[in-house]
Specification:
Elements: H1 4-8, E1 31-32, E2 47-49, E3 55-56, H2 66-97, H3 103-127, H4 133-146, H5 150-155
Parallel strand pairs: 1-2
Antiparallel strand pairs: 2-3
Length: about 160
């Protein structure tokens, strides 16, 4: 016979075992606040914490920051001006270049120079998706320095 004290410490059915497995809770995702980087094994599975407190899935790329968005716009505009500069400068020099190289070679070189800023922008944009921000900035600025339309600079408004 059990005493009243033992009855107070137990419930009816305490000795019964559950027959089904407990449902697994959803796995908690690791997340870091802005400015922190995960390193090491499986660091690509670590998400980011958004401003509103929700967790950004690691597969999603965080949006561009305002300074980076401004830089991309400014550099894109510079590359567009470079394209126009290569067209104007290249067509200006076409008559004088006829004495030095065949027309076909000049046309190929001219259109390669015209397309170079757009190709550089696209290459930097696609190849630096997972790189650090400074790598993308360095790629854009290297293009600004390397792709200057010298025919326009020397014979255009500056050279005249």
């Amino acid at each position: 016979m059990t005493s009243d004290a033992d009855d107070a410490l137990s419930w009816e059915g305490d000795d019964d075992r559950p027959t089904q497995k407990p449902v697994a809770e959803p796995e908690q995702k690791a997340a870091l606040p802005r400015g922190w980087n995960a390193v090491g094994k499986r660091s690509e599975t670590v998400g980011r914490i958004r401003e509103d407190g929700t967790v950004l899935d690691p597969a999603e790329k965080p949006p561009l920051s305002t300074p980076m968005l401004l830089l991309v716009g400014i550099v894109g505009g510079i590359y567009l001006l470079y394209t126009v500069g290569w067209i104007v400068g290249g067509l200006t020099l076409q008559s004088s270049a006829m004495f030095l190289i065949p027309d076909v070679m000049y046309q190929v070189a001219l259109w390669a120079a015209v397309l170079a800023p757009a190709l550089w922008f696209g290459a930097v944009w696609l190849l630096t998706r997972r790189s650090a921000t400074w790598v993308r900035v360095a790629g854009f600025l290297a293009g600004v320095l390397l792709l200057v339309p010298w025919p326009f600079v020397m014979t255009g408004a500056v050279g005249a």
